[in-house]
Amino acid sequence: MRINEPNRVGMINAYNKTGNNQVGKSGKIPMGKDEVNISTEALEMQKQVEDVNSPQRREKVEQLKKQVEEGRYHVSSERIADKLLSFWKKL
Q1: Mean pLDDT in each 10-residue stretch from start to end of the chain (91 residues)?
Q2: pTM metric for this prediction
Q3: Are 29 and 23 in contact (CB under 8 A)?
């Protein structure tokens, strides 16, 4: 039974190549720049979080809470049906 292949040098060569970085005139190894790309979906999510924390949004939520507690908050059944229908069509 053979466990190690005698001619397998690929990993050794890959390891050896990592030490061959070119050193600049200053004696330092040149480094690449780090880069971050934020997707449009992530930007949308961030905007929604900011919108939720806005003072106008908080005021609206407080008004709705008060209406619900007092029993004055009513939504038409047609609006509920429209929202449910659009949700199920997306799936």
Answers
A1: 61 62 62 87 90 87 94 93 93 80
A2: 0.39
A3: yes
**CB under 8 Å to 67, separation ≥6 — which residues?**
73
Domain extents in the chain: 40-90
How far is 90 from 83, CA to CA, in rounded Å? Answer: 11
In degrees and rounded to multiples of 5, residue 7 shows phi and psi of -100, 15
Q: How many helices (H) and strands (E) does the chain have?
A: 4, 0
Query: 3-class SS at 63?
Result: helix
Do residues 63 and 73 lie in contact, with contact meaning Cβ atoms separated by under 8 Å? no
